[in-house]
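in:
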């Protein structure tokens, strides 16, 4: 039973209210529960022009690319994303500015009042945040709202959006299998639930089996399917400081590193063009270059040793990290922590050959895999393996005799280390 607040008067109280809900909420078979809440709030989602983004990997990056370009082009652009790295208000922003504490508090109170009148009140934290997001974007009169799903698509509460301007499906991989299914086809079926007509953009590189599901959904809903044409892509360069490429005879640069970001950018370009509002090519290029996300193969060149911080937590994400790491000849040490619900054994099999040693860490979450258990996996893989239960110890061990340090395996863990790394930088400034 939740410890309910009668009224929310301050930002700390709004956070307390949010945390009174479980992360998952009660299981759902349809969107009735959240639709009822939205109706009591005046159905704010019905007044929004949305770009709806789903996928396993890359949806956060694609959401950021699209939002950054639309802002660059002068549109008031809302962006709803997950998870957050430092401040929960990161998840709701307009033109790159987080929702203010005062607005967050005020809208949380509106949601509380509406939620108390609902018959089914077994909401998740994500549903409450989504309600705040829709209210905020409607209230502020956004031209576009770029909405990232939480998990899945069909039963994701963001899917009460009547019909998006453009639906985007990024890469499909095996993640959240207990909820979405244990095959790419099943997962694609869930993700493609956001397609309701109009235009769908499917990322390049989606498996044939998953793409077949998306094609079937598009045909059923009368949606035009667009897939980036990689035959018209030429990569100029890629490294820790970003990448450059030519697509359809236009030159682009990205700050976010990794070859997978090039494909994410192509997906965003096609989504933006599908809006059919005549966005200038030079503004698209400028917006893509400005786009940045923390803890996505984020490079800290001023740290000693240099650090790559990544929140990737599944085998597909580890493959992307491996490609980046193997391109750099320096000897590397890893600090790795993973959540027990992830396929950590497969993920480690992929990433561990990149390192001379690894420090395994579990101090970031109650459901983190025990560091000693992970160290055992590392030892069996022939990697010099250590374990730590606090950040400072992990960094001390990992930094010893290392030319480069990779920190990854979980966004929750990456968030903690990022705070620490930035704190170190500020102290040394």
């Amino acid at each position: 039973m939740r410890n309910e607040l009668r009224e929310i008067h301050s930002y700390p109280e709004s956070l307390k209210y949010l945390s009174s809900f479980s992360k998952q909420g009660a299981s759902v078979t349809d969107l009735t529960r959240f639709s009822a809440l939205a109706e009591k709030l005046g159905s704010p989602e019905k007044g929004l022009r949305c770009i709806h983004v789903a996928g396993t990997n890359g949806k956060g990056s694609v959401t950021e690319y699209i939002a950054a370009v639309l802002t660059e082009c002068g549109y008031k652009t809302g962006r709803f994303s997950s998870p957050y790295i430092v401040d929960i208000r990161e998840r709701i922003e307009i033109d790159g500015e987080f929702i203010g504490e005062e607005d967050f508090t005020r809208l949380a109170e509106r949601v509380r009042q509406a939620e108390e009148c609902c018959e089914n009140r077994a909401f998740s934290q994500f549903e409450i945040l989504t309600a705040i997001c829709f209210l905020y974007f409607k209230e502020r009169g956004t031209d576009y709202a770029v909405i990232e799903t939480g998990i899945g698509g069909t039963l994701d509460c963001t899917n009460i959006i009547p019909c998006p301007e453009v639906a985007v499906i990024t890469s499909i991989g095996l993640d959240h299998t207990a909820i979405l299914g244990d095959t790419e086809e099943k997962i694609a079926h869930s993700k493609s639930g956001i397609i309701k007509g109009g235009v769908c953009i499917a990322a390049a590189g989606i498996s044939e089996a998953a793409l077949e599901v998306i094609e079937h959904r598009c045909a059923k809903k009368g949606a035009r399917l667009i897939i980036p044409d990689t035959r018209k892509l030429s990569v100029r360069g890629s490294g820790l400081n970003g990448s450059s490429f030519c697509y359809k005879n236009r030159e682009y640069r990205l700050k976010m590193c990794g070859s997978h970001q090039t494909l994410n950018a192509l997906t965003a370009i096609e989504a933006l063009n599908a809006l059919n509002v005549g966005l200038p090519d030079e503004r698209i290029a400028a917006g893509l270059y400005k786009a940045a996300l923390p803890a996505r193969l984020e490079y800290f060149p001023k740290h000693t040793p240099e650090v790559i911080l990544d929140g990737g937590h599944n085998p597909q994400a580890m493959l992307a990290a491996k490609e980046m790491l193997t391109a750099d000849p320096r000897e590397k040490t890893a600090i790795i922590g993973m959540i027990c619900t992830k396929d950590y054994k497969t993920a480690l099999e992929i990433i561990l050959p990149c390192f001379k040693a690894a420090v395994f860490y579990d101090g970031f979450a109650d459901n983190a895999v025990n560091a000693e258990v992970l160290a055992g996996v590392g030892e069996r893989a022939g990697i010099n393996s250590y374990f730590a239960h606090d950040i400072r110890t992990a960094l001390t061990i990992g930094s010893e005799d290392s030319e480069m340090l990779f920190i990854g395996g979980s966004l929750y863990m990456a968030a903690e280390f990022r705070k620490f790394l930035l704190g170190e930088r500020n102290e040394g400034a």
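note: The chain has 15 helices and 17 strands.
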